[in-house]
Fold this sequence. Notes:
Two copies of one chain form a homodimer.
Chain A: E1 5-8, E2 12-18, E3 21-22, E4 26-28, H1 30-38, E5 44-51, H2 56-64, E6 67-75, E7 81-86, E8 93-99, H3 112-115, E9 119-122, H4 127-137, E10 142-146, H5 149-154, H6 156-163, E11 168-172, H7 173-180, H8 185-194, E12 199-203, E13 209-213, E14 216-220, H9 234-247, H10 255-272, H11 279-282, H12 286-300
Parallel strand pairs in A: 1-5, 1-9, 2-7, 5-6, 9-10, 10-11, 11-12
Antiparallel strand pairs in A: 2-3, 2-4, 7-8, 12-13, 13-14
Amino acid sequence: xxxxxxxxxxxxxxxxxxxxxxTQRALxxxxxxxxxxxxxxxxxxxxxxxxxxxxxxxxRLLQRRNICLKGLQILPGKTFHWKGRYDEDFKNATTIATExxxxxxxxxxxxxxxTKCGVLFLANIxxxxxxxxxxxxxxxxxxxxxxxxxxxxxKRKSLEKLLSRVNMLFVNEEEARQLTGDHxxxxxxxxxxxxxxxxxxxxxxxxxxxxxxxEEVFSIPAHPVEKVxxxxxxGDTFAGGFMGYLAASPDWRDIKTLKRAxxxxxxxxxFSVEDFSVKAVxxxxxxxxxxxxxxxxxxxxxx
Amino acid sequence: xxxxxxxxxxxxxxxxxxxxxxTQRALxxxxxxxxxxxxxxxxxxxxxxxxxxxxxxxxRLLQRRNICLKGLQILPGKTFHWKGRYDEDFKNATTIATExxxxxxxxxxxxxxxTKCGVLFLANIxxxxxxxxxxxxxxxxxxxxxxxxxxxxxKRKSLEKLLSRVNMLFVNEEEARQLTGDHxxxxxxxxxxxxxxxxxxxxxxxxxxxxxxxEEVFSIPAHPVEKVxxxxxxGDTFAGGFMGYLAASPDWRDIKTLKRAxxxxxxxxxFSVEDFSVKAVxxxxxxxxxxxxxxxxxxxxxx
Lengths: 303, 303
């Protein structure tokens, strides 16, 4: 019953500084955070690009999670490197350096096995590339995408074309408003639905997340985290838990399934912020995921 | 079984401007918003002050809800008047005028009947006045208080003294951080607990609210509102629903009761923002409250 998920996005090296310490060229990127999380629920294949400097221990770490890296191109040059620093309250990240390196030449190229995947997640990359993947894909059972303010400003037309062809969209509040011009989140997401995706997931950081599906509006709080070490990749980890659970479920149009997917996304992202890079998620046991999920779901219930 | 709630706070006239319109000298103030909400669950008595200009229709509106106004002093002069404007996204209120008028001479004075109330809510006023009420009160079964950044800066010592004597504290995130110097909300509330109150309720606007009680942490999302007309008093309306429900409950140390109280607070505040002043809350039927509560609680459940 499990569908394989194809994720197309960035594979990066991140140098991050927070009040709790720093990392140098740690494993990062949207496709990495997504797949480390999603692979706990469903098989995942990655399409991305790295440079010749990409450390083989990182490759092995992903492969140990049964993440297929056949679609990870190696190009001459260096891997995408992001360097940033977070405020004390983790609200703002200051980018110190963005070295795109080989990532600026990324042309996602799918082989036959990739096109058979039932679920496609288009992580935040140039919407023209996302569109190109869709065209190579043939028919996936379920297509979800992410984006960011940069593309909304620079490539709105391409993005609108893409949105008309996806089932699900992950955005944050600001992006929802920027895309639609509406300040009220319910109105904004309704407008987004008219642009194509039937399901909208609004990621709200430590305020949780909201799901809009047809007439249903579902809000979920964040799982409380006592010591946030590094929020990098929390959104992709959320999307990974969400999509991973859906890909293993018989019906992603069922609101109960969608609510459980939101809870798994929340739980996975709560783990991810507890350490740098993918450290916390990579060392998780299945039992730990289940335990936090059960506790979280129990806490939410009122009656 | 129902306890009567005594609320001490401001009774005001509010002139508010939002993208959806404006009001001139409408009924407002923390004690008003609180009691309009709490009185749907438990009997309420108000201690406050107004000027001779306070319109008698406002007085009757409160009395029709069985809110006892025997403790509402009338002083020569004008009623406290606040004039403000909200941004398009309702995140910030700009104060255009604060005319304290008779409110600057407010000396809460309790009669014998007031001191018999089982529950006391000290709305956001000068902590020295809040302390004075506590001293007149004798023993209430349950004491809760609210405060604001202004008093944290100007009267920290008085506030700390007060906190050592209350059971519950309502704050927003910024106030929790300002009071404790801790950015992480869990750590901040743990520090607040050490200052006195056993239960901390953190109000987070459209991100919902959090409750901290002993080892329990409970987050609740906001009820989605499609058209926010006026957020003035939403926090006091939340506290009113919360305290009103608790006052009618046999055990306010029971986490299930506290969770239900959080839900009623959320539901009441979601109504309050749908119209100016206390309009939406005042016209509510019991059935409408129950309907939204049941639907909300059902939406939250994952399983």
